[in-house]
């Protein structure tokens, strides 16, 4: 006896369920139009709570990452406050502005004019002011204190003055460690100068390609943290606009909010493209559902078989779903991150795909049958595919949500 195996166990029950649901919708369409719009309007109020979360350390590291525990050990045992800052031996990731300075002509930064402009740059940073909540602040209000004064890159200051004053023959600055007769401890210059060329015999510095300077900032209180953020952003914008007094030097910067700012820039670049994509998708969906026919020698639109309103409603339904989902998530306190901005592209693609499945099933029905029967038959065939694609997509998102990586 031959046994016929049927592995499509869900096809018939899901198809019948979609068939019964489609008949109810076809007989009583008003509630299924009005209620989703009202529900979307209610959930859309969650958009008023929209705040984009951009903490890179939290988003792009596993929740149980070992480095978080190890960092906490260092934080608890050493330098727990801003008052315990010690340059060169600091183990915490603090707020800070870091700059690499090179010569505009790719030459040595230790030449007289370049060294003088480097000193002007240091003074420019240390004397810069910014405004926060209507009050003017400066670097000295948020700088970390070392030996009862603001940390001012003393090694870089010291070296630049030597070359400005022409005292390099007297001091004979060596690299990577400089042993001065004025200090008992050797000075490590590897974190101050880069691209260094030395005399092979004496290790005395001849030229250097770059300076590295850092301005680490206070962050112990919410106000100090906000002030440091404002200082970093303001100085970064000024450097980007080339407001530095350095015509002979190139200044490159990095600060503790650089990653977050780049994520913000990426989000700003995506938003206009999303609007354009949405317009293109609507246009494609509408034109893709239009059927042409020849009437004599003229090609006209067959409005009987064309379904542009179905395409438009399919896109609108997808848009309502996106607004509702985001609004509900914000009401529940779920963080909104830049990565979520790609979600509308995925959802719209899925929605348009399902819409075309339904349209194809509709066109395969008997044209002479009543409308309700045609809707019922179309959804019985297309509903299975729509349900399966939606279920697998939801499952993939759920698996992603279970991952220990918050982003």
From TrEMBL:
It comes from the Eukaryota. It is found in: Membrane. The chain crosses the membrane at residues 28-47, 274-292, 312-337, 344-362, 382-405. GO terms for cellular component: cytoplasmic vesicle membrane; plasma membrane. Keywords: Glycoprotein, Membrane, Transmembrane, Transmembrane helix. The keyword Transmembrane helix applies. Residues 272-407 form the SSD domain. GO terms for biological process: endocytosis; molting cycle, collagen and cuticulin-based cuticle. It is a multi-pass membrane protein. It holds the Pfam family Patched. Belongs to the patched family. This is SSD domain-containing protein.
């Amino acid at each position: 006896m031959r046994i016929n195996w049927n592995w499509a166990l869900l096809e018939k029950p899901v198809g019948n369920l979609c068939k019964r649901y489609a008949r109810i919708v076809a007989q009583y369409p008003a509630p299924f139009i009005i209620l989703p719009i009202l529900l979307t309007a209610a959930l859309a109020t969650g958009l008023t709570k929209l705040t984009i979360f951009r903490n890179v350390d939290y988003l792009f590291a596993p929740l149980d990452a070992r480095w978080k525990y190890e960092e906490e050990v260092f934080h608890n045992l050493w330098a727990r406050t801003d008052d315990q800052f010690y340059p060169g031996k600091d183990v915490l990731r603090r707020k800070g502005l870091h700059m690499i300075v090179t010569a505009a002509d790719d030459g040595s930064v230790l030449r007289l004019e370049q060294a003088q402009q480097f000193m002007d740059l240091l003074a420019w940073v240390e004397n810069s002011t910014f405004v926060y909540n209507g009050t003017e602040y400066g670097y000295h209000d948020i700088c970390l204190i070392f030996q009862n004064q603001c940390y001012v890159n003393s090694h870089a200051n010291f070296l630049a003055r030597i070359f400005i004053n022409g005292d390099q023959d007297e001091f004979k600055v060596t690299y990577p460690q400089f042993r001065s007769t004025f200090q008992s401890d050797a000075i490590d210059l590897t974190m101050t100068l880069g691209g260094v060329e030395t005399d092979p015999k004496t290790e005395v510095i001849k030229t250097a390609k770059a300076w590295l300077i850092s301005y680490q900032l206070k962050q112990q209180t919410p106000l100090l943290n906000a002030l440091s953020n404002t200082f970093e952003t303001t100085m970064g914008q000024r450097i980007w606009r080339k407001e530095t007094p350095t015509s002979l030097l190139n200044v490159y910067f990095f600060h503790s909010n650089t990653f977050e700012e780049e994520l913000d820039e990426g989000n700003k670049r995506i938003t206009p493209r999303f609007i354009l994509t949405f317009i293109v998708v609507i246009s494609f969906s509408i034109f893709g559902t239009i059927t042409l026919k020849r009437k004599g020698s003229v090609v006209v639109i067959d409005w009987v078989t064309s379904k542009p309103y179905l395409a438009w409603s399919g896109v609108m339904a997808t848009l309502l779903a996106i607004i509702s989902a985001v609004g509900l998530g914000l009401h529940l306190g779920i963080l909104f991150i830049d990565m979520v901005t790609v979600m509308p592209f995925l959802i719209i693609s899925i929605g348009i795909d399902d819409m075309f499945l339904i349209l194809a099933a509709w066109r395969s029905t008997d044209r002479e049958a009543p409308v309700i029967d045609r809707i019922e038959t179309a959804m019985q065939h297309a509903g299975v595919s729509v349900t399966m694609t939606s279920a697998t997509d939801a499952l993939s998102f759920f698996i992603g949500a279970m991952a220990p990586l918050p982003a």
